[in-house]
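Reviewers of the previous submission asked for a worked example of the structure-prediction workflow described in the proposal, so we include one complete record here. The input consisted solely of the amino acid sequence. No template or homolog information was supplied to the procedure at any stage.
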Amino acid sequence: MFFLIYTLLLLLGGIAMVAVGVAIKEQGTGSRVLNVIVGLAFFAYGFYLLFLFDGGSYRIFFYVFILPVLLIVRAVKARREAREQAAAHQFAGAPQPQYGQPVSQGWQPAQPGNSAQPGQSGWSGGPIG
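From that input alone, the workflow returned the following structure tokens.
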């Protein structure tokens, strides 16, 4: 019974790691390659044990229970961080005034004694004094 559960966990963990390595593009290339390689190794060993193994001794790797979970959690965190960074860049993407350029204050209502219209300065261009 334990042998069957162990081989099924190998197969399922391998499939999950390959799927995460292929599907989640936000993680680095090294992480994606690691997920796919380890996933293929898990799947191949599970396939061997389930269909080709004739009996005798076999190795139990306890990574089967831990490693797929860790790699999947790491991939999901990378995806979440990439989305948060994209949202932060989108929020910060509003045009910012550059050094040396005037800062627009937008339309402001005329004050008493100020005849300036929106978009004009208060000076009419006449003589001062």
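The two ends are 101 Å apart (CA to CA). We consider this example representative of the routine output the project will generate in years two and three.
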